[in-house]
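Database export, one record per block. Field names are fixed; values are copied verbatim from the stored entry.
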Amino acid sequence: MNNTLKQLDTVLQQRKREDPEYSYVASLYDEGLDGILKKIGEEATETIIAAKSDDKQKLIYEMADLWFHSLVLLAQQGLNSNDVLKELERRFGLSGLDEKANRNK
């Protein structure tokens, strides 16, 4: 799985140099932060609707779209999936309640 994320990270970086007319991802970068955030909002809404529909395949499809567009945001911000994975690893074994309480300090 991690290999897939690494491959996506590489492709998303490459798309920064592509022509927005010929690359969907490049067109998202061209729209800037607001355009990317709008797309993530749309995908989050579609994910919620899919979850409520009780259609597991639709949920997987929409979640993939949400993850993908979240990775686009990370790349646009100079980050990648490994940055998020490191944070998840840091949290592993921590109580979710303790972690949340520590964020508010």
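Remark 1: DSSP finds five helices and no strands in the chain.
Remark 2: The mean pLDDT is 93.
End of record.
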